[in-house]
């Protein structure tokens, strides 16, 4: 029996999981038209229809539903095999994370991990891009948000909160603040890096939570990266509402101080460690995850 092209089988497997050509295209970094073309090739090769097309919805035929679990298992086995080869051939253990977490937590401490595990060559890839483990040479990711990808292994490291912060010298020069409402008499710094989630806390929602009315919650400088917003606060530009986890190293070093910490707001999101399920048992993943958990245990 002559097998169909692997790209066509892959397109079918992904489209079948999502029941969407558009979502399949996003996972495989191609266009929906390319997915449709590959599936058409597969249907022509097999001499049968695999999808019933109803307006904007696609439904698997009975035969396609029966074949899907076997094909999915086949690709899982291929990924495991490639993972074993990569484990032998790749000299680095690549961890993707956001730039702010990289600079505030990982960069100052990675040498400690290397001292504990000299045989693991950890490499940090700082990027706001969400990793696609199927096509990118990345072994694990440390990410902030709401984790909902059931195809990955994931473990929550810590819940994240936002809190007002400023430089202690700047605060002393203002004569101190007596109540949260006093914050809005001073320059505000906006950390917009969190607003990929529309429900994320802002100065506006902070004022609402505290019952503060009649104040301007939108003025002030804005930054799209958290470490830039924190740096502005350390430079005396005003008060920032930012994630306390990212600010913790600067708070401990005396470069920032929390204002009214009892008013901290839950973001509803968390910091997660994620990796492909087939790589979760690799020693590199296990020791790096354990090290991260010990790092954040006192937070």
What attributes characterize this protein structure?
two-stranded antiparallel ribbon, alpha/beta, Arc Repressor Mutant, subunit A, 299 residues, 11 helices, 3 domains, D-Maltodextrin-Binding Protein, domain 2, elongated, 9-stranded mixed beta sheet
Could you explain how this protein is built, in words?
With 299 residues, the protein is of the alpha/beta class. The protein has 3 domains: 6-89, Arc Repressor Mutant, subunit A, CATH 1.10.10.10; 93-158 and 270-296, 3-Layer(aba) Sandwich (D-Maltodextrin-Binding Protein, domain 2), CATH 3.40.190; 160-267, Periplasmic binding protein-like II (D-Maltodextrin-Binding Protein, domain 2), CATH 3.40.190.10. Helix content is 41%, strand content 22%. It contains 11 helices and 11 strands. It has helices spanning 6-18, 21-28, 32-46, 62-89, 99-106, 110-116, 168-173, 203-209, 226-234, 244-252, 283-296; strands at residues 51-54, 57-60, 93-97, 122-126, 140-145, 152-166, 188-191, 221-223, 239-243, 257-258, 265-276. The strands form 2 sheets. Strands 3, 4, 5, 6, 7, 8, 9, 10 and 11 form a 9-stranded mixed β-sheet that branches. It has a two-stranded antiparallel ribbon with strand order 1-2. α8 (203-209) links the parallel β7 (188-191) and β8. α1 packs across α3, α2 crosses α3 and α5 packs parallel to α10 (244-252). It is elongated. The termini are far apart. The mean pLDDT is 90.
